[in-house]
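Bumping my old thread because nobody answered last time. Still need a sequence for this structure:
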């Protein structure tokens, strides 16, 4: 989203230097005109002109404990004073404890953690583990998915970010996951959508060669592609299909994990307890330490970990399990437990964000649908409610969306915008007052979107 250059001289210098020397990520999306941020605290950011913005984005949906939490900042400082970095072949206290705590939030039987430096590396390694474990090559992932921006994870990614980056014949096969509002299966309810999506997956595997698939990767609740909360039994059905064909099931919890959906992991919303299904591998990153220091990882089920005792897993990273990152994981998980931050995310979702977004959908004709859990909500914007024509095309932008985004920002609210969707994804620590403040601003900004609706 292009933003005007700051007026303040010091911020302007930062802006100009960035534009001269930094190749911006996803530059095609306008990130080459960056907003300068000079400070951040809790749920608020300060921009280069000293404007205070309520952060309904959690940055890239990672600052689950908000910005600059003093407990986590201190844990990083203390670890830096003690030991900044070591060879990952050596053990250190921060990594050992971080692994124990991460395994504790995963389903029973998932006791081992492989650390990486980001979500995409977690995905790369999870796929390699699945290939090593099965001796097979092909992979399955949803069209509406995002799994990262390195080679394999980019091939797995189904959405438009893959288009310019496709690596050709990599064995990555894509399928339609459930999305009732824009059903590919002409379904009229969740149950039909679920059954038909599972039939489609099963038949696709049959046509593509069941004995050739190493892994199926799926976001437990898809994130950037639109927060399509799956029908209650979908993931359980996917597990059954994976079992039928000996495919390793990977739940990608990079965005949805660590409190975002009001549960520690999003998959917990679709399990009835530890006797229920579990994936073979889980990828995580972002919320595990709110992104204070780069970190990601793979949680392995014991049955996969055991196979690497016979055939070793050949893969590792210089900074895997970095002490500063692991110290921040330990502090973050303990803090989330002590301050009941996951419970807060659930309550705010159930009592404020969900009900108020549904009210906004009644009031504003530009809203086609709202959906979500916890502090993980998507607002699907349409030009026409009857035809469900999106307010911006898939993979593109529109004046209506940009102006609505701009109106909210001018009023002090930073929204997450993707094509025809606004996502309401504030930090999990958000208070009721802050949530209401942001939703009031969003309500006013939606009048702008309404003016583009065809009557
Ligand atoms: N998987 C999912 C579900 C994600 O949302 C993301 C990042 N948005 C990634 C993987 C990649 O993570 P990273 O940007 O840390 O490499």
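Sorry it took so long. Here it is:
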């Amino acid at each position: 989203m292009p933003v005007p250059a700051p007026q303040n001289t010091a911020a302007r210098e930062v802006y100009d230097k960035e534009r001269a020397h930094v190749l911006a990520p996803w530059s095609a999306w306008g990130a080459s005109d960056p907003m300068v941020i000079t400070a951040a605290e809790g749920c608020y950011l300060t921009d280069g002109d000293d404007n205070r913005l309520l952060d309904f984005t959690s940055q890239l949906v990672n600052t689950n404990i908000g910005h600059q939490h003093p407990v986590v900042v201190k844990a990083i400082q203390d670890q830096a004073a003690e030991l900044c970095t070591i060879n990952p072949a050596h053990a250190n206290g921060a990594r050992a404890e971080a692994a124990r705590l991460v395994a504790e939030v995963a389903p029973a039987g998932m006791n081992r953690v492989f650390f990486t430096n980001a979500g995409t590396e977690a995905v790369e390694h999870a796929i390699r583990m699945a290939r090593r474990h099965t001796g097979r090559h092909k992979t399955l992932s949803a069209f509406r998915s995002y799994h990262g921006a390195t080679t394999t994870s980019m091939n797995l990614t189904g959405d438009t970010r893959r288009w310019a980056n496709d690596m050709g014949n990599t064995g990555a096969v894509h399928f339609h996951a459930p999305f009732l509002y824009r059903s590919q299966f002409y379904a009229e309810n969740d149950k039909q959508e679920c059954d038909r999506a599972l039939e489609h997956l099963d038949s696709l595997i049959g046509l593509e060669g069941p004995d050739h698939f190493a892994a199926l990767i799926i976001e437990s609740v898809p994130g950037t592609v639109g927060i399509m909360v799956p029908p209650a039994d979908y993931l359980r059905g996917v597990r059954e299909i994976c079992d039928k064909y000996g495919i390793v099931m990977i739940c990608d919890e990079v965005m949805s994990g660590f409190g975002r959906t009001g549960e520690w992991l999003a998959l917990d919303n679709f399990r009835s307890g530890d006797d229920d299904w579990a994936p073979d591998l889980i990828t995580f990153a972002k919320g595990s330490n709110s992104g204070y220091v780069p970190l990601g990882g793979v949680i392995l089920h014991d049955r996969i970990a055991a196979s690497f005792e016979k055939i070793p897993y050949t893969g590792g990273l210089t900074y895997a399990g970095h002490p500063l990152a692991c110290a921040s994981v330990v502090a973050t998980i303990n803090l989330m437990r002590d301050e009941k931050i996951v419970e807060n995310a659930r309550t705010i979702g159930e009592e404020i964000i969900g009900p108020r977004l549904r009210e906004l959908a009644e009031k504003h004709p530009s809203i086609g649908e709202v959906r979500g859990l916890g502090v993980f909500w998507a607002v699907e914007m349409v030009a026409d409610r009857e035809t469900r024509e999106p307010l911006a095309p898939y993979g593109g932008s529109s004046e209506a969306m940009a102006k609505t985004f701009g109106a909210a920002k001018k009023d002090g609210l930073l929204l997450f915008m993707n094509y025809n969707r606004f996502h309401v994804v504030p930090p999990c620590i958000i208070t009721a007052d802050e949530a209401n403040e942001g939703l009031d601003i969003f309500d006013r900004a939606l009048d702008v979107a309404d003016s583009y609706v065809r009557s």
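The longest strand covers residues 376-384. Let me know if any region looks off to you.
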